[in-house]
Amino acid sequence: MARKDDLDVIKRKARRSSKNLAAYLKFVVGINPAEHQDGWLEACQDILNKASGQRYCIIAPPGAGKSVFIGVGFLSMVIGLNPNNHYGMLSYADQVAWDRALPIRNIIEHSKAFKLAFPNVEPDLTSWDKKGFRVKRPNLADPHPTLRAGGVGSAVVSYRLNGLVLDDVLDIKTAKTARTREKVYNDYVDAVSTRMVKNAWTLTIGTRWSDDDFIGRLLSLKHHGAPVWTAIHIPF
User: Fold this and answer.
1) Is pLDDT above 50 for 82?
2) Distance between CA 214 and CA 197 in Å, rounded?
3) Strands, DSSP E only, in 46-86?
4) Which residues pair with residue 95 across a beta bridge?
5) Which of 96, 136, 146, 181 is 20 to 30 Å from 82 by CA-CA measure?
6) Cβ(61)–Cβ(69) under 8 Å?
7) Average pLDDT over residues 177-197
């Protein structure tokens, strides 16, 4: 009886984890969202509930847990919920993005908890590498990866994206001069932002470096006088 009760509890946790990010982070990723991450949780859950073109900037210092929370936890869950869609994760360099995408692949391929939450999502091992990977899906003619990872200045996105995580697209080196900051922003505008489908969401996470840095440029954008991006800061 005790074992049956335990299994029932696990199944309930798995069902809840397929809908609720806080539950998913605990059950699958093994992290408990901290108090300073409440705003992140609300923004990510908003996207998970219904993609409607949301644009969030999550601003936090190094060590705040944003890459694991969003780059691993949120992205792996959104793939579980929408395995037929296409997503991107870009950072300031290819290797950085590839390293941050590796835990997502590991969760989808090896996590028993993920398989309980999303039993119909399976890796397509014929397209499973550091630059991008694909999960199995009904449309066998779709050649594009489920997730593409790379540097914002070198990742050429040749297909439409349903969602995008921009994870530290500036580092201390590229943030140093106005010229390099301008190049990163222009690379995003010219080669990445144009690839988003209708109602595609974008999450930018990073540290502020200057008033005219990448996040600063995004937050200055207006549409009919209203901000295009929503900023989320760590509460003091």
Assistant:
1) yes
2) 22
3) 55-59
4) none
5) 96
6) no
7) 92
Indicate the pTM of the whole model.
0.93
Average pLDDT over residues 153-160: 73
User: For residue 165, what are the β-bridge partners?
Assistant: 89, 203
Q: Which domain holds residue 153?
A: 2-233
| Dist. CA 5–CA 71, nearest whole Å | 34
For 204-218, how does the pLDDT look when each residue is reduced to its tens digit (9 = 90+)? 999 999 999 999 999
CA distances 66 to 96, 115, 186, Å, are 14, 24, 24
Element (H, E) at 106: helix 94-110
Show Cβ contacts of residue 102 under 8 Å, excluding neighbours closer than 6 positions.
130
CATH code of 161's domain: 3.40.50.300
Q: How many CA atoms lie within 13 A of 165 on its CB side?
A: 30
Q: List, in order, residues 6 or more apart from 137 with CB less than 8 Å away.
A: 83, 84, 124, 146
pLDDT per residue as tens digits for the range 101-150: 999 999 999 999 999 999 999 999 999 998 899 999 999 889 899 999 99
- What is the distance, to the nearest Å, from the Cα of residue 78 to the centroid of all Cα atoms in its chain? 8
State the total domains in the chain: 1
